[in-house]
Structures are given as structure tokens and as C-alpha cells.
Specification:
Chain lengths: 365, 475
């Protein structure tokens, strides 16, 4: 959807919503829209990311298609988020990859895997792919520590800088010259983000096969906490290595393995659940580009989770070398595409929540 | 409650114990109650699935008496106070026994609705005046309807869409079968009992024209196009006694650019007390500041219906723009009054004269206070504007084209306290019941009390469902 069309279309739809207001109880969007009655570009970026895509307003709308008002707020919000991801992706050239997320993600994972495999072959010889390794330092005998950590940190730093640059510009544009970050608005936004408040649909839940359920919020929680547990596993492994001088692989009942396994399982189950909910739900209240972004991101997460779990299960077999290559390749694919896909949704959504908390706090005061 | 034995026992089981004619709030309440009481239930909804729910789709709140604050409303709202409110809006014209019954039973609706899966939300922006007396269900009426259909289907109610009931086979104050059209087929369901809850007739413009003449062709119908009163006609054909003024309409000022049907709440124009209203010849025709808008908005539909071409225009200026709930369409706007009149298509010279006379009759320098009866009235103007009268002189000037927008009709069938349909001879049909808009006129004979139509529908729908299940089990 062209940007101008999107602004005009959201403006049109919100004129109806502002006159109706029946959906106010579902989420923050409709209260926020009443404060932005003439929709501009910044308002699209703000409201689209404040929307958590529960789709209850579509279910509840007596003006949804085929009504001539043709109100479909979740679809226009989804288009608005796709536009946000592309507009604020930094640098802007790779941000265009949003237009073909599946192909780019597959290429990134395969490319990453190939590079890791080449690095393994170069450092440990091709025999690393059929020789079982065990005991402390087993992974590093296949791929040296430096070859693992330097590119990983480099990718993470690249991603963090890109996302931070985009987030800064996004905050500037939706703020439209006003400052909305304060301790209290941050606190409110953080609480709403961690509790996934706006995936509750005001109590009705989110979209599912039949109207609504709490499934999406539950699975999203698994993905989020699973992902964090996996990050924590990585950090704890680095700490054990750095300060306790213990080299991986770690025993099953160690902090990194317990966190990594629990996180991996939560991530795998959560992602599978989200995919299942998406597949059995109605596609009308969303938008094709957003669907592609969603499935791509979920596919990447699932690949990382499953290859990680497989690596754990088969780490002392001859498959370890290959699994390590695939897993690190998938992680590389996830991080290299992160600034340009669905991964960044939480950044923009959090900033939108902060602005909303500021505005609502202002009204209450 | 007294149960009478059926006068005649059919030889075989009917197709359904209870057939519900209609698919909105009252119909669903009846279906759920009858099914919970063990009856086999078929619900015949005239609309296709995506349009199901009648005018309940456009509702958002329900009025109920309560002694204590609860999850849906604040403070207390005594039964006597609600009855007094009803007497005020109807001018005392109500069936007291049925009204008292509705109000007493209204104390149970929040708990009952919650038990069917309905959730509640804070009063919507702009509705604080209703927070004590009315409960707002989450997501509004279509979400309510969806919740009820889910519950009904889960309980085993069989639903048919696009099924319009047009005949009731009755004998000796009993209904034996319901006949309906589904596409181009006519089908028949024998039944142990039937509940008619198919709304009013406001979507049948030809029927409206019987009472309103040619003017009806220029009415906008705010609700579903499926409330054509076919089932109500079937009730009359079966001998049901009429209740309510056939000319009675709830009718408000809506945007003339609104869709002909189903524009709902978003086409309503709340601008009138903020400026003036003129008719097609540029003349004012009623006191725009007579009373607080929530008490007066419902008279403006009829006022406009009485004007030439059923047309009028709300005109205001930049001083009050943005002070009222917007409608789905932006107002027309111009830097001069003449420019505005050209856009609206109304005689600019006449409007200029009207505005000049109105401006001259306002007290200069008195600031109006929009939230209250401020006493800032015109002097020497006919008709007067009693409150909030300030000059229309600050560009840009704004205007909405207006039409009468019909919400519902009051004409219905008489019922007794068991929701049984009363026949013209005064006797009640044993197993034929009515609920909702097609009998609300027994209680709300005229006027308007926000959220009370849904109260009547819920209370009588439930009574009808229980009674229908009982009498069908006695076959």
C-alpha cells in the first residue's frame, strides 16, 4: 500500500472509529486515536505499532466488509507496521528486503551455514564432520572460540546499532517534536509489554480458529521467555568460561544447559503454537506482507530452537560438526535479518507504548 | 407462576420443541434459556450470517436496576428510580405490571449475561452520564451477538441463517408450526412452542409510508435492513393484538451522506446545540438549546421529518468545532457562510438572513458553558434558542446536511407477564411468545431510555425461552 494511501485510509477508518468508540475496551489504539483525529504519517507509525494485532475489533465491527464503510482496522495497522519496518530499517538499502523476507531469510541461513562449514573445514579439517568429539573444549576443537565469538559479537553489534538508529528516528517522528519519555511512561510501558496486556483483547483474548482465545498470548509468552532464557544461557556459558575457566560442552545439570534446553523447548513450542494459531485463523484482518514477515520470523526462530536442541542432543556424536554449522548459520541468519523484519516489532511497539502511557497520563493528570 | 395443561396433545413429536423466529438479543436469550432447560431449539435468523443479530449489532449498553455497584455499573440505581425514568420518557404511558416486571428482572441481567460469556468495559468516552445506570459490554453489540451465538451453538441450538418467518400456523390459541422462506424455498417446522423475536418493521419503507406517506422514502434507516416486520405481520395475521402507535418512530438527526441502511451510531450528528439548525429554505424551526442534548437528541429526527424534503442543516462556527463527538463524515467547511451554503446546497441568502437575526438576538460578550444549562438564550427570536446561544461569526464555518434517521419502531404485539402473545379477543396464545422490539411497545410506548430496549429484550427473551421450554415439554 502506498504511504499516502495508507495515511488516507487510516484517516478514513479512524473517522468511523472515533464516532463509534465501541472497541475502546479492547486495547489502547482507540483511546489513542481520539487524540489524533487528523491522521498524518507519524500517526500511522504510532497507531500501527500500538496495535498488538489481537483482531478483536474486526470481529466486533458492524461496519466490517461487506459493509460499505469497509472497516478493517487490523489490516490497515498491519500494512502500517510493514511500512514502519521498511522505513526505519537502517541502513535503508537492505531494509528493502522486507519485500521478499522468505527468500532473504533462507539465503541468510544457508549462506551463514556455508560460511561456518567452510570455517570448520578450514580450521579443523573436513574430518570434523564425521569425527565424534567429547570432553571440555569439544566445540572449539571443531571451530575455534575466536571464530565463533568474533563474528557473533560483530553481528549482534551491527544489529543493535541498526535497530537503535531506526528506533531513534521512529521516536522522533511519532513524537512530532514533543518529548514523551519519562520514568513513569517507561514504567507503564514496561509493565504492559511484559504482561502482554494488549494481547488480552480486554478479556476476550486474541484471534484464533473460532473468534478468540488466550492461546496467542500464552504462546507469545513462551516465545519471549524462551528467547530470553536462550540469551541468558549464552551469557552464563560465557561467564562460566571466563571466570570459572570451564569449557563447554557443559553437563546436563549446569546453568547454561538447563537454561538453553528450557528456553529452546519453550521457543520451539511457542513458535509452533503461534504458527498453528495463525494457520487456523481468518486472514481477512491482516495483510499479505505482514503474513510473510510473521512466518519468516517464526520460521527463523523455530530453526534456531530446533537446531539448538538437536545440537544438545547429538553433541557427542559424529553429527556435532554439521549441527554446529547449521545452528550457527541459523543464528547468523536470524541476527543479520533482525533489523529488517518482524524481529524489531517489540522495539517500535515499546516506543509506541511509552508514548501512549505519556499521553494517557497527561489526560489523567 | 401457574402452568396450564395443554388443551390438545399432538400425536407425534414436533420437528423442534422450540422454534425461535429472529436472531438478535431477545431471540438469543430465549434460545439459550430454552436450550438450557432441555428443549430442542431451532433459531431462524432472517439475515445471512455476517449480518446476524438484528439491531442488537448496533447497541452498546444495557440499563438495569442495582442496589450496589457491580462489574458493569457504579453507584446504585433503585428499581423505583428506573421506573420513574421510564414514566418520564413515556409520559406515563406504559403497562405498569410489565414495566415493573422488567425492572425487577433487570437486576439479574449482569450476572446472567456474564454467565453466557459476556464481558464488560468502562463507559465509552462521552458516555459518563450513563456510568451509573447502564453497563457497557465489551466490544459493543456485534461482539455481544457473537458471544451469544457461540454460547447457543455450543449448547446445541440449531441456527438457520437467511430464514425469514412469514407465517404461523395457529389453531385455538396454539401455534403448531412456523413457516419460513429460505432463499426461494418455503419450509415448515412443526413446534412445541414458538418465540417471535424478530424486531420491528423500520426497514420496510413501504410499511412506513402507510403512516408517513412520501416522506418515508427520504428516511435513513440506521439499523439492519432485515428488520422488515415480516414476522410481526405473521403475528397479526395469526390474530395477535396490536400495541403501540403505528406512526411511532425513534428517529434522530443523521448525516444526509449516511448509507441508506445500517449506518448505525456513527452517522448521528451531535452538532445541533452548538449552533443552529435550518431547513431547506434556510429557516430555523426549533429551539436548538431547549435542554441537555442527551435528553433532546431523539426529537430531532421527527422535527426534520416534518420539514420540506425531510432535509435540514446544522450550522456552527470555529468557536465550537471539535467540542462534540465527531461523526463518520467530516462536516462541510468554508471561510464564508455563503461558501458553506453553496457546498451544503442550501439558499445562501436565506441562511445569511437567519444567521444575522440569530446573531442579533444573542447577548454579546456572554460566554456560553456547553456542559450545562447555561441560560445563555436568545431574546426576541422565534423560535428561541434557550441555552448556548452565541453568535455564529468566526470562520471557518461548518455544516452538516441532515436527514431523519430511524432507529426503531414502537408498534408491536401485546404480551402478558409470561411473554405469551395476547390475541385480539383478549385470550393469550398458550405456546406462542414474543420478546424484544416486536413487543417493547408494551412497556416503552414512546420516548427513549438509553439501553432499556436491550433490557426489555433480555428480560422477555429469557422469560419467553423458559416458558416455551416448559410448555413444549408438556406436549
Amino acid at each position: 500500500m502506498l504511504e499516502l494511501d495508507l495515511t488516507a485510509e487510516l484517516d478514513r477508518q479512524m473517522s468511523v472509529c472515533n464516532a463509534c468508540r465501541y472497541c475502546e475496551g479492547f486495547c489502547a489504539v482507540f483511546g489513542a486515536a481520539q487524540l489524533h483525529t487528523a491522521i498524518g504519517t507519524g500517526d500511522v507509525a504510532y497507531l500501527a505499532n500500538l496495535c498488538h494485532d489481537c483482531r478483536m475489533c474486526f470481529d466486533a465491527c458492524m461496519f466490517a466488509p461487506p459493509h460499505e464503510f469497509a472497516i478493517n482496522v487490523p489490516a490497515v495497522m498491519a500494512a502500517g507496521r510493514v511500512e514502519t519496518y521498511e522505513r526505519y530499517g537502517r541502513p535503508s538499502l537492505p531494509a528493502r528486503m522486507i519485500r521478499n523476507p522468505r527468500g532473504v531469510a533462507i539465503a541468510a541461513v544457508l549462506g551463514g551455514t556455508a560460511i561456518v562449514a567452510l570455517a570448520i573445514a578450514a580450521s579443523a579439517g573436513a574430518a570434523a564432520f564425521w569425527t565424534p568429539q567429547s570432553g571440555p573444549g569439544a566445540f572449539y576443537r571443531v571451530l575455534p572460540y575466536a571464530a565463533m565469538i568474533v563474528p557473533a559479537l560483530g553481528l549482534a553489534a551491527y544489529g543493535a546499532v541498526c535497530v537503535a538508529l531506526g528506533a531513534r528516528d521512529y521516536a522522533r517522528d511519532i513524537g512530532a517534536g514533543s518529548r514523551f519519555v519519562s520514568l513513569s511512561s517507561l514504567r507503564t510501558a514496561l509493565r504492559e509489554a511484559l504482561a502482554l496486556t494488549y494481547l488480552k483483547g480486554g478479556g476476550a483474548g486474541c484471534y484464533d480458529a473460532h473468534r478468540s482465545s488466550g492461546s496467542r498470548r500464552a504462546f507469545h509468552g513462551l516465545v519471549f521467555w524462551g528467547f530470553l532464557a536462550d540469551l541468558a544461557a549464552t551469557v552464563s556459558a560465557a561467564l562460566e568460561q571466563e571466570f570459572l575457566h570451564l569449557l563447554p560442552p557443559y553437563p546436563l545439570w549446569s546453568v547454561p544447559v538447563v537454561l538453553g534446553t528450557g528456553g529452546g523447548i519453550a521457543l520451539a513450542v511457542g513458535v509452533a503454537g503461534l504458527v498453528a494459531v495463525k494457520r487456523r485463523s481468518d486472514n481477512r484482518p491482516t495483510e499479505p506482507h505482514m503474513i510473510a514477515l510473521d512466518y519468516t520470523f517464526l520460521g527463523l526462530l523455530e530453526t534456531v530452537a530446533l537446531t539448538g536442541l538437536a545440537l544438545l542432543a547429538f553433541r557427542s556424536t559424529a553429527a556435532m560438526g554439521a549441527l554446529l554449522a547449521v545452528h550457527l548459520g541459523a543464528v547468523a541468519g536470524l541476527f543479520i535479518t533482525a533489523p529488517y523484519g518482524k524481529f524489531v516489532h517489540f522495539v517500535y511497539r515499546f516506543i509506541a507504548l511509552v508514548k501512549n502511557a505519556h499521553e494517557q497520563g497527561h489526560i489523567a493528570a | 407462576m401457574q402452568l396450564t395443561a395443554p388443551s390438545r396433545a399432538p400425536l407425534e413429536r414436533p420437528d423442534a420443541d422450540v422454534v425461535i423466529c429472529g436472531g438478535g438479543n431477545a431471540a438469543l436469550c430465549a434460545a439459550i434459556e430454552a436450550r438450557r432447560d432441555g428443549a430442542s431449539v431451532v433459531l431462524l435468523e432472517g439475515a445471512p450470517e455476517h449480518m446476524r443479530g438484528g439491531n442488537t449489532r448496533h447497541t452498546r449498553d444495557i440499563r438495569f436496576a442495582h442496589d450496589l455497584p457491580n462489574l458493569a455499573a457504579t453507584g446504585t440505581y433503585a428499581e423505583d428510580e428506573l421506573y420513574a425514568d421510564l414514566l418520564r420518557v413515556t409520559g406515563g404511558k406504559t403497562n405498569e405490571a410489565l414495566a415493573r416486571l422488567t425492572i425487577r428482572e433487570s437486576t439479574t441481567v449482569v450476572a446472567w449475561m456474564s454467565a453466557q460469556g459476556v464481558r464488560w468495559q468502562k463507559p465509552l468516552t462521552g458516555t459518563l452520564h450513563l456510568s451509573r445506570t447502564n453497563g457497557f459490554f465489551l466490544g459493543g453489540g456485534k461482539h455481544l451477538v457473537n458471544t451469544y451465538y457461540d454460547t447457543a451453538v455450543r449448547l446445541g441450538v440449531r441456527v438457520r441463517y437467511g430464514a425469514t418467518v412469514h407465517r404461523l400456523e395457529t389453531r385455538d390459541h396454539r401455534v403448531d408450526a412456523v413457516v419460513y422462506r429460505c432463499g426461494d424455498r418455503e419450509e415448515r417446522l412443526s413446534c412445541g412452542a414458538a418465540v417471535v423475536a424478530a424486531g420491528g418493521f423500520e426497514a420496510d419503507l413501504a410499511w412506513l409510508a402507510e403512516y408517513w406517506g412520501d416522506a418515508a422514502s427520504r428516511f435513513t434507516i440506521r439499523g439492519t435492513p432485515y428488520n422488515t416486520g415480516v414476522a410481526l405481520k405473521a403475528l397479526y395475521a395469526a390474530g395477535a393484538k396490536r400495541v403501540g402507535d403505528p406512526r411511532g418512530l425513534h428517529c434522530v438527526a443523521v448525516d444526509a451522506r449516511a448509507p441508506r441502511f445500517d449506518g448505525g451510531i456513527v452517522t448521528r450528528i451531535d452538532a445541533i446545540p452548538f449552533g443552529i439548525a435550518v431547513n431547506a429554505v434556510g429557516q430555523r424551526f426549533y429551539d436548538e438549546g431547549e435542554d441537555l442534548w442527551p435528553k433532546r437528541y431523539a426529537i430531532w429526527g421527527k422535527l426534520i421529518a416534518e420539514q420540506r424534503g425531510q432535509s435540514a442543516f446544522a450550522i456552527f462556527d470555529a468557536k465550537v468545532a471539535g467540542r462534540f463527538i465527531p461523526s463518520a463524515f467530516r462536516p462541510e467547511q468554508a471561510e464564508t457562510l455563503a461558501g458553506l451554503c453553496e457546498k451544503l446546497g442550501v439558499d445562501g441568502a436565506a441562511v445569511a438572513g437567519t444567521v444575522a437575526a440569530y446573531n442579533a438576538a444573542t447577548a454579546p460578550g456572554r460566554p456560553v458553558r456547553l456542559g450545562e444549562l447555561d441560560g445563555c438564550g436568545t431574546s426576541g427570536l422565534v423560535p428561541p434558542k434557550s441555552h448556548w446561544a452565541q453568535p455564529i461569526d468566526t470562520p471557518p464555518f461548518f455544516g452538516y446536511p441532515l436527514r431523519p434517521g430511524v432507529t426503531f419502531t414502537y408498534l408491536g404485539a401485546e404480551v402478558n407477564a409470561r411473554a405469551q402473545v395476547v390475541a385480539g379477543d383478549g385470550g393469550a396464545f398458550e405456546n406462542l411468545f414474543a420478546a424484544g422490539e416486536c413487543m417493547a411497545g408494551n412497556i416503552l410506548s414512546r420516548g427513549y431510555l438509553a439501553g432499556f430496549g436491550l433490557t426489555i429484550g433480555t428480560v422477555f427473551g429469557r422469560i419467553a425461552g423458559v416458558e416455551a421450554a416448559i410448555c413444549s415439554s408438556l406436549i
